[in-house]
Amino acid sequence: MRVLIACESSGVERDAFTAAGHDAMSCDLLETQSPGPHYTGDVRDLMGEPWDLVIAHPPCTYLSNSGVRWLHTDPARWALLDEGAAFFAAMWDFDTPRLCVENPVQHRYAVERHGKGRPSQTVQPWQFGHLQTKRTAYWLDGLPPLIATTDLEAETFALPMAERAKVHYASPGPDRWRARSLSFTGIAAAMADQWGRVGASQPALI
Hints:
The protein is α/β, with parallel strands linked by helices.
């Protein structure tokens, strides 16, 4: 399959699909952190190309439920919310029969603006081999929900809060956003395995 990982510079998901035998490329405004096929620029430049699968990670700064309180203290954020919601909705403009759009759980103002409804599913890292919590939402089109590969819930919640939620408690600094947005290798491997097989052997889901 020809796979695009949009709005990701880490290379984690791209490398998982490449290892599974797919023609995968990542795209971001930033250079890739891992050597491999990567387009540095606006992902909308690639929307006219045909893809068998697109997994998109549009920016969530103004869409995430965790930051909704700031909308009521900083009026300037409403215009940024509108821009973020429009970019999120644009992910459905890709020429692909199979699409996953990833974001944290969103607040209701974001959902109202982008018009794509609530997510198809949410996942946790402990369902895919990581002793961490970070609830992530997927909007799916032409793809089945991702199936968990492990169940480390008990072990994860036995850890201290600061350890199991270390993504949330990442130290302040210029690279904090990078640590909080990094893809989990276990989830990436499950995507490459499960969605890679769907694309190779089945038509897109209606």
